[in-house]
Amino acid sequence: MNNLQWLDEVKFNEQGLIPAIAQHHQTGRVLMVAWMNREALALTAEKNQAVYFSRSRQKLWHKGEESGHFQTVHEIRLDCDADVIVLQIEQHGGIACHTGRESCFYRKLTPNGWEIVDAQLKDPSQIYAEKSVNPHTLAMNASTAQSEQVEVLDYLGQMMTERKAADPDSSYVAKLYHKGLNKILEKVGEESIETIIAAKDFKAEAHEDNKNDLIYEVADLWFHTIVMLGYFDLEPQLVLNELARRQGLSGLVEKANRQH
To answer: What's the average model confidence in pLDDT over 98-108?
Structure first.
């Protein structure tokens, strides 16, 4: 959509913003409300992925950039007063709310007050703290990528040590360690299957959404294997060291060496 004259019909407020309602394109359920400026709305229309404007951070916010829960936009509508946007979306991961629920509107008014009526689908600490690890790494450039990645591994190794000694109710990883090795291995198995499915989906249809899903699932798988290493007090760096050792070594030779 190269011609942006349509943006001139949108009535942004004094701050240059307009409220945007994200609605499930099949069920019609309202999932969240956020704000857009002119650039965010233009990018959303161009990329068919929801891009909002964060008032607290004063910058564009690509939904899913930290959580992996991207929103594919099927349709954009403008209300009769031209001052509210509705996005008909597909919510990747099934979670729109930062609390780990499908919708931000999970509380219902009852005679006893506000009651939570929607279950939490995923622990927010898993979504944000442990999946994204460090939001700064999302913006790292090529010149610092290698050192940043080593820092991420160091951070994860330290985090595993801390979580093993933590209250099981304090985080997702602490709960996994409390449940024991079998539960951790079960999660590794689940993530392996989900990675295989995502890879097959990407092969069948190589579009951006499937690529993002594959990256997301591989990150899940790697993360849970690091949890497993932590169970045995093994640092992630040991795996990197092993990969470095294999550089320049034929795969057939490496396999033969392991058999002797």
So the answer is: 91
Domain covering 5-116: architecture: Roll (3.10)
DSSP state of 93: G
Q: Which fold, 125-259?
A: Helix Hairpins (1.10.287)
Give the Cβ contact number of residue 241 at 10 Å. Answer: 10
Q: Which residue has the tokens 């007063």?
A: 81
The pTM for the full model equals 0.52
Buried b (16+ CB within 10 A) or exposed e, 32-42: bebbbbbebbb
Q: What is the pLDDT of residue 151?
A: 63
Asked whether residue 132 carries a pLDDT value surpassing 80, the answer given is no
89 beta partners: 24, 73
Residue 11 phi, psi dihedral angles, 5° rounding: -95, 95
Query: 198: exposed, middle or buried (C-beta count within 10 Å: 0-12, 13-18, 19+)?
Result: buried
Cβ contact 202:215 at 8 Å: no
**Within a 10 A sphere around the Cβ of 94, how many other Cβ atoms?**
13
Q: pLDDT above 70 covers what percent of the chain? A: 84
pLDDT at 113 over 70: yes
